[in-house]
Amino acid sequence: MAVYTQLGPQQVDTLLAHYDVGKLVALKGIAEGVENSNFFVQTTQSRFILTLYENRVNPDDLPFFYALLKHLHDAGCKVPQFITDRDGQWLQTIAGRPACLIEFLDGVSVTEPTEAQAHSTGAALGHMHQALADFTLSRPNSLGVSAWRPLASRCTVEGLESIATGLSARVFAECDYLEAYWPTDLPVAAIHADLFPDNVLMLGDNVSGLIDFYFACSEVRAYDLAVTHSAWCFSNDGTAFDAEVSAGLLSGYADYLPLDTATREALPILLRGACLRFLLTRCYDWINTPANALVTRKDPLAFLRRLDFYSDGRHVENMLGHYT
Ligand SMILES: Nc1ncnc2c1ncn2[C@@H]1O[C@H](COP(=O)(O)OP(=O)(O)OP(=O)(O)O)[C@@H](O)[C@H]1O
Ligand SMILES: N[C@@H](CCO)C(=O)O
Predict the structure, then answer these.
(1) Is the whole-model pTM more than 0.90?
(2) Of 230, 241, 175, nearest to 197 (Cα)?
(3) Which CATH class is domain 9-103?
(4) Record's NCBIfam families (predicted)?
């Protein structure tokens, strides 16, 4: 569940009085998500998401997210806009929390994507990357390659071994490998960094919205493709790779940005990096979240299985065969 702060209609009425968006008709907490408190707000004029930023989003980063979404929206990408009040303010305080009123986008997130849906997602990602080529703000990636070893240490050897025997050695060996081979010659730009299926809204086969940009940061651009590939192209538990979904995602992306030689050569490393990032954050949460907490812990081993898959160079070669 993700309603950490409760809100009453009176508080939301008071907030909405600053905007030209009509009067409150319905207010409902949204269960999905784990980072922020989200509410569905229906007014006499339209529908909105009201997000209250809880401890994991640093309020100092909000101007970066605002500018990023405005830039993408102005470039025609399907992302929600932050709504400004009559004084031009988009950042408010409600119940003592920083809060924003955000455009509501139609669509549902899929759990078992088809090739066509993956194609549309790849295209939306490529379009976004193209649009961000002239976006000038930056935000360091606090979960990038240099953060993985310290994060693994914070998980502790015992913690990692409690999840799977041998996991600790595997994780530290992977840190050695990725630190040695992480690409330094590819374009760096603002990326989404967490484009899992639950952060993509779809209507039928078509993307209607990309949401949840709160991990967005400056990074090797193709790493975003790697993250998205690792999130979309496997069964949830990571045991089954779906070659059709992979082909759809890559071809949608390549409609906007070519998979040039440098990108193709770096992808095996970037894909392994994406797996290690989610393996480690899930391990950390697994170890530090009580089993009976309201937030459901995500299975870390689902990303160890993906890491195993990508570590076999033949798999990535087959996937990219069409582009060489
Ligand atoms: N702009 C939007 N339009 C429509 N629905 C939205 C929008 N933003 C968020 N939602 C809904 O709210 C849910 C939670 O939003 P979001 O993923 O941003 O939360 P979060 O707490 O940051 O989640 P996460 O755990 O994925 O980081 C989404 O799954 C979606 O159903
Ligand atoms: N999308 C992530 C959670 C947010 O980083 C995961 O599934 O582990």
Answers:
(1) yes
(2) 230
(3) alpha beta
(4) PRK05231.1, thrB_alt
Q: How far is the CA of 61 from the centre of ligand 1 (A)?
A: 18
Boundaries of every domain in the chain: 9-103, 115-323
Cα–Cα distance, 128 to 125 (Å, whole number): 5
**CATH superfamily of the domain spanning 115-323:** Aminoglycoside phosphotransferase (APH), C-terminal lobe (3.90.1200.10)
Strands (DSSP E) contained in 58-125 are 92-94, 97-103
Q: How far is the CA of 198 from the centre of ligand 2 (A)?
A: 9
Q: Are 106 and 96 in contact (CB under 8 A)?
A: no
Closest ligand, as measured to the CA of 283: 2
Residues in the chain: 324
Query: 34 alpha carbon to ligand 2 midpoint, in Å?
Result: 9
Which of 156, 155, 187 is CA-nearest to residue 270?
187
Domains 9-103 and 115-323 share a fold: no
**pLDDT tens, the chain, 324 aa long:** 466 788 889 999 999 999 999 999 999 999 776 778 899 999 999 999 999 998 789 999 999 999 999 999 999 999 999 999 999 999 999 999 999 999 999 999 999 999 999 999 999 999 999 999 999 999 999 999 999 999 999 999 999 999 999 999 999 999 999 999 999 999 999 999 999 999 999 999 999 999 999 999 999 999 999 999 999 999 999 999 999 999 999 999 999 999 999 999 999 999 999 999 999 999 999 999 876 666 788 999 999 999 999 999 999 999 998 787
